[in-house]
Amino acid sequence: MLKTKSPSSVSIYRNQNLQIRAVFEKAPSAHKVLCVALDYAKRKHVALCCDGNGDVLKEPFPVENNAEGVAYLCEQVEATARRRKIAKDTIFFGGEDQPSYVVNFVTALHQRGYLVARVNAYEASEQRENLLASTDQLDLLAIAKTLLNRRARLTTPCQDQDARYPQIRELSRTRRGLVRQQTSTSNRIHTLVDRLCPEFLCTPTFPGP
């Protein structure tokens, strides 16, 4: 009798991050997954530790955006993991789209052997319980929910990043800002000219032959 090959499994969650899914598959249960959500800032980040079910293991706490902050964050995360008997390979970090001022911070986490992901800011905003307000606490919880839904992309250390993409993105944003300012200034000039010289901007009409 001929053996038929079993069809390859296809997930209905096409946009889930495979590396984060692998973290959940390694753990014996969702309680043994440690998700560290980060709300980035130039001077001081805010971190939140929760398990794979979304239960808060450590309330939000501040983390300096420097080498000492990385050491302090890892110390707090490792202490939480020890209390819950969570293995290092089932711990992952994540924050919103990686700004330039956290590249060194994220690289330091990579060097310590941690998986670091980034979530889309718009998708995270959709996870906020209060869509009409935005606070550090709400933003942090929304980031954690997005990470636990496996909706994220992986970050890479700064030495492995292609510098052209951030440069093109920054140029595009700068041009968009300049166009917006130019349009706004042009509209204001048009309004003032219309007020002072109502017929100045009218299309001239030429008499026929």
Structure description:
This protein is an alpha/beta fold and 209 residues long. The protein has two domains: 18-158, Nucleotidyltransferase, domain 5 (2-Layer Sandwich), CATH 3.30.420; 162-200. It has helices at residues 18-26, 67-84, 103-111, 121-126, 136-148, 164-196; strands at 34-39, 44-51, 56-64, 91-96, 115-119, 153-154. Strand 4 (91-96), helix 3 and strand 5 (115-119) form a beta-alpha-beta unit. The termini are far apart. Residues 1-7 have low confidence and may be disordered.
Keywords:
six-stranded mixed β-sheet; 6 strands; alpha/beta; disordered N terminus; 209 residues; Nucleotidyltransferase, domain 5; 2 domains
What name does the CATH topology of the largest domain carry? Nucleotidyltransferase, domain 5
Tell me the number of helical segments per DSSP (H or I, 4 or more residues long).
6
N-end to C-end Cα span: 97 Å
The proportion of residues forming helix, as a percent range, comes to 40-55%
Q: Which CATH class of the largest domain applies here?
A: Alpha Beta
Count of distinct structural domains: 2
- Rounded mean pLDDT is 83
Q: Per the principal axes of the C-alpha atoms, what is the gross shape?
A: elongated
Strands in their spatial order, largest beta sheet? 3-2-1-4-5-6
Largest sheet: 6 strands, mixed
What is the structural class? alpha/beta
- Count the beta strands: 6
Series of H and E elements: HEEEHEHEHHEH
